[in-house]
Amino acid sequence: MNQSPLQTALSRAMIRWSLTKSTQLADSPSSTIFKVEQNGRNFAVLKLLKPAAAQEERRGGRLMNWYGGEGAATVFDIHGDTIFMEWLDGGTLGDAVRAGHDDQSTTALCSVVGGLHRARAEPLEDMLPLRERFQPLFDTDVRAWPHTARDMYARAAGIALKLFDRPTAQIPLHGDLHHDNIMSSDRGWLAIDPKGLLGDPCYELANAFINPLGAEDTVKDPRRIAAMADMVAERLGYSRKRVLGWASAHAALSACWTLEAGEAIIWQLTMLPLLLSAYDQA
């Protein structure tokens, strides 16, 4: 009986890394993920990439490998379109926020970013420039936005252009660092699923300002926005104004992606005026 391409790729990976058992955990547009065993004792993860997202996923895999386990799950090996990596068996930082521990979660976020942004001896090439990541924001037809929100779109796009015109250090970025992309482990909180970008370190926590899902009352509290910006500035030494500027710009970019997918931007339109207000007051 002929195997499917997925089964063939899985079989080859099991042989290559001497794995003994596999259990499918998830199947997304970008990859199929398996929990695997080594000698019946140690667990690990196989991430089999799909063609449509292979380039982005490979870039993220190279970034994870470059992190070397500091602030992120360890990548053991990459072969073709298969990533062999550390198994994390804890919950996410999003779970902690939804359980009422948002302040502690922000502390953990800053700790993770500190590990990710630590200087490494070897340079990393072929990451996607942050400016290219933001191109959908600048290409969007403002008429796609609700009439009453077009001024916010214009303001956020203007802030993004201003930030790009005044660049700071350009470093490898996770690029999608929200609470549910950070998992608990016996090594502490670790990031997963990076996009692999190159840009301003102040952008790294932008997505966290509109996350996690399921904790909307906490996330939309202006006091939470201010407290998160304060902590990022204090613990990481990043410009509070730039952090809030990137958070505003990212919320607008997120809205553009959502509109392109034909979906409503109710959540982004809830957060964007709050973030713009915080930016103005910074």
Automatic annotation (TrEMBL):
Query: Could you tell me which SUPFAM superfamilies the record lists for this protein?
Result: Protein kinase-like (PK-like)
Q: What is this protein called?
A: Phosphotransferase
Any one GO molecular-function label of the UniProt entry: phosphotransferase activity, alcohol group as acceptor
Q: Which biological processes are named by the entry's GO terms?
A: secondary metabolic process
Q: Which InterPro entries match?
A: Kinase-like_dom_sf, NH2Glyco/OHUrea_AB-resist_kin
Q: Which Gene3D superfamilies match?
A: 3.90.1200.10
Pfam families given for it?
A: APH_6_hur (PF04655)
Organism for this UniProt entry: Devosia litorisediminis
